[in-house]
Amino acid sequence: MAAYKKTARMVGVLFIIGTAAGVLSVVMSSPLLDASDYLTEISENDTQMITGALCVLIMGLSLAMVPIVAFPVLKQQNEALALGYIVFRGALETVIYLVMVISWLVLVPISQEYVQAGASDVSNFQALGTLLVETEENAAVLMSIIFPLGALIFYYLLYRSKLIPRWLSGWGLIAVVLFIAAALLDMFDVIETESTTSTLLDMPMAFQEMVMAVWLIVKGFNPSPSLRSLPE
Asked: pTM of this prediction?
């Protein structure tokens, strides 16, 4: 059982690190990317932009480790689904995060060249900047599809196995449905990404992940007769 507790604690810590890094990335990047003259803002605050990109990288790597660390436990419920969780969260999400990081980092030298070029020769840099921002936005849209698919696998396995209380894994399943609803409404321009409605639909997922992370760190996985011993 000590191995189960160690695995659970590692999963909980990774969730917290990933969430904290994700929040910091938004705090760092949003004021720059949302500015009307975002290239000038990025040029004047390049360290802030680079820090935001590094936070995205930390978030991506931390969350990519979750299915890998949890795999020895989850595969005892359904190995195919456990592997699917690795594919969605460990592989596909990581690729998307890397695309976002690269886009943000490339924006820094582009913004500096934009400022140095002067008013007479900025169209090329504006076009490149727009392309990079659109690439990041498209990656975010793709993430809104990939992430909930992985989360559905994860919470289904937790609900089926009773590794955590069913009220907690059930909360996760409901939160995923709300997250998908927000993504679809945003995709079809019914609501805006940063609208109150979108935030309210996304919040149950954010709260559930933090509650679950704390639960895993403090309580660990529940004993289950279907689980074989893990190596210490």
From this structure: 0.91
Coil vs helix vs strand at 37:
coil
Q: In this structure, is residue 42 part of a structural domain?
A: yes
What are the tens digits of pLDDT across the range 184-223?
998 888 888 778 888 899 999 999 999 999 999 999 998 7
What 3-state DSSP class applies to 197?
helix
Q: How many domains does one find in the chain?
A: 1
Tell whether 41 is covered by a domain. Answer: yes
The answer to whether residues 97 and 55 touch, using CB atoms and an 8 Å cutoff, is no
Burial of 63 (0-12, 13-18, 19+ CB in 10 A): buried
Q: Which amino acid is at 136?
A: E
In single-letter form, the type of residue at position 204 comes to P
119 by Cβ neighbours in 10 Å (0-12 / 13-18 / 19+) ranks as exposed
Place of tokens 């886009």: 103
Helix (H) or strand (E) holding 87: none
Range of the domain at 47: 2-218
Residue 230 maps to a domain = no
Between CA 160 and CA 42 the distance in angstroms is 47
- Examine residue 226 and state whether it is found in any structural domain, yes or no: no
